[in-house]
What does this fold into?
Amino acid sequence: MAVYPDDIIVVDDDGAVVIPNAVVGYVVENAIEQERLEEWIKSQVENGAELPGLYPPNDENRARYQNSIAKND
It folds into this structure.
């Protein structure tokens, strides 16, 4: 991938990603929700749930997740 001035490069222990400047806002908005979903999935697995159907979430688990965040908001 080409990297241009003003692109954002994010690096952590898992690797690196380049975010084109034109989509940074979109990525930030969706990254926050993705992080919240992954934390919920992690908590479900820690409580004994099987990963298949949780990641990626099937319709049933997506509804459970939506209900859980509605209760916490």
Summary: Residues 24-46 form the longest helix (23 residues).
